[in-house]
Design a protein that fits this description.
The complex is a heterodimer. By secondary structure, chain A is an alpha+beta fold. Chain A has one domain: Deoxyribonuclease I, Chain A (4-Layer Sandwich). Chain A contains 6 helices and 17 strands. In chain A, the strands form 3 sheets. In chain A, strands 5, 6, 7, 8, 9, 10, 11 and 14 form an 8-stranded mixed sheet that branches. In chain A, strands 1, 2, 3, 4, 15, 16 and 17 form a 7-stranded mixed sheet that branches. Chain A has a two-stranded antiparallel ribbon with strand order 12-13. In chain A, strand 8, helix 3 and strand 9 form a beta-alpha-beta unit. In chain A, helix 1 packs across helix 2. The mean pLDDT of chain A is 92. Chain B is α+β, with helices and mostly antiparallel strands. In chain B, helix 1 packs parallel to helix 2. The model of chain B has no long low-confidence stretch (mean pLDDT 91). Chain B has one domain. In chain B, strand 4 and strand 5 form a beta hairpin. Chain B is 45% helix and 26% strand. The chains are: A alpha+beta, B alpha+beta. At the A-B interface, strand 6 and helix 3 of A face strand 5 and helix 2 of B.
Chain lengths: 297, 147
């Protein structure tokens, strides 16, 4: 896998430091094993880790060692909360810009919309504009709250600003934990992310969400250990498996020239040693890592 | 069939709302400037100003109008040739809100008056902004020189 014919990326909500709480050595050990999977085994070019604090940075750094991976802090205060993202990238394949934090303030509340990083593959001029989001949980912002729709509107505004910089459709990747499903209106109506790949190829302003494919994942087996979404809501009354972690891409990455979405690679990662922890009430982990890639055509 | 009368009435109503929003935004700047005036003996004023965008190599087309952008800027009204210090990039919706402030690596959409007040206060607390404002307060005013 070289950075020149493939650009691979990932997101994992680590659950290590929600709202600044400290992680335990045991959970950090699990997390560092996943860092190894994403970097050494899968060799992703760009990864965003959510709910990380500077305290875990050292442990992640020790795992990455002195190899080709570099870390970039995305820790930034935003109102009474903060962005808690740690970015890791393969410096032998890609250069990245400093993260820009995008927030919306409404009614005394600070909404963390996204962090944007521009990644450029060596040998190519047109960058990938990556928007990494971790929207509030439904516990802190109800599913029907207007602010949730506003998050989608403001993320769309940020995407549109990138569109304005180009005469053609830019390479845009959105990734993160939206605490909304692919069919939720903030993603479909506000952000304009569609399940319909052919429509996205025709209507260039639409974003394509490949994660629709993973809704209602295998229920025919009684195997409790397999992945049926990206997030397990332990207190869920009606639904426990949710698909809150998703990837969306601009239509330039669907066909034709340049780069094209690798559907086979794009998925929530079902790791036999880790997935069972998501539904284990004694574990802090509740999100699976998700990955995606675009290939040179 | 289009109902132009209804659209027209809606447009008038939107224009009223937008005007009220713009006045509200101006009032927030006015309150901030009144307080800064007291604090600095009238040596700092903050306004939204237009700046020329830097020329890119590909833009060397003399027939093209120069691109501009809006920014929150400060100057010393007591100095005739006061430098205009750019503090943060600014953009505003046609309806008044949201207004967007870009400070360092943070872009904030202010959706209401409370948000704008909070962000302007945050702007004043920024160390680079503080330094720029301090320099303005240290300039010799023309009135003092004349006196």
């Amino acid at each position: 896998m070289t950075g020149q014919d493939k650009f691979s990326f990932g997101w994992w909500n680590t659950s290590l430091s929600p709202r600044g709480r400290e992680s335990t050595p045991e959970s950090v050990e699990v997390a560092t094993r996943l860092v190894e999977v994403l970097t050494k085994d899968l060799q992703l070019d760009f990864i965003a880790f959510g709910e990380v604090s500077p305290a875990e940075r050292k442990a992640f750094s020790d795992v990455l060692g002195n190899n080709k991976y570099r870390m970039l802090d995305g820790f930034q205060p935003a109102g009474r909360s903060r962005f808690s993202t740690l970015f890791v990238y393969n410096e032998s394949s890609v250069t990245v810009s400093s993260p820009v934090s995008i927030v919306a303030e409404k009614g005394g509340r600070t909404l963390r919309v996204a962090q944007r990083i521009d990644a450029t593959i060596y040998g190519f001029k047109k960058p990938f504009h990556i928007f990494v989001s971790h929207w509030p949980s439904r516990l802190h912002l109800q599913e029907s709250a207007p602010e949730r729709y506003l998050l989608g509107v403001r993320l769309r505004d940020a995407v549109d600003e990138i569109y304005k910089l180009y005469n053609e459709v830019p390479n845009i990747i959105l990734i993160g934990d939206y605490n909304d499903e692919p069919f939720s209106t903030p993603l479909t109506e506000a952000l304009l992310a569609t399940r319909d790949r052919l429509l996205a190829m025709r209507r260039k302003h639409l974003l394509y969400n490949p994660f629709w494919e993973f809704l209602g994942a295998p229920c025919e087996t009684a195997d409790k250990g397999s992945l049926r979404g990206s997030y397990f809501h332990k207190q869920g009354d009606v639904t426990q498996w949710r698909l809150f972690d998703q990837v969306m891409v601009s239509s330039s990455l669907l066909s034709g020239h340049g780069w094209i979405l690798d559907d086979d690679f794009t998925q929530a990662l079902d790791l036999p040693g880790y997935t069972p922890m998501l539904s284990d009430a004694n574990e802090i982990f509740d999100h699976a890592p998700i990955i995606g890639a675009v290939r040179r055509v | 069939m289009a109902n132009f009368s209804k659209s027209f009435r809606k447009g008038l109503s939107s224009a009223k709302d937008a005007e009220a929003n713009r006045k509200e935004i101006e009032s927030v700047f006015q309150v901030m400037n009144d307080e800064l005036c007291k604090e600095t003996d009238g040596k700092v004023r903050i306004e939204v100003q237009e700046f020329d965008a830097p020329l890119r190599v590909l833009d060397l087309d003399f027939l093209k109008p120069r691109e501009t952008y809006s920014a929150i800027a400060a100057y010393n009204p007591k100095v005739k040739e006061s430098p205009l210090k750019e503090l943060a990039k600014w953009s505003q919706d046609r309806a008044g809100y949201p207004c967007k402030i870009e400070l360092g690596n943070m872009q904030t959409s202010c959706e209401d008056k409370l948000a704008l007040e909070k962000q302007l206060a945050y702007l004043l607390e920024d160390p680079l902004v503080g330094e720029a404002l301090y320099k303005l307060t240290q300039m010799e005013s023309d009135e003092e020189e004349d006196g």
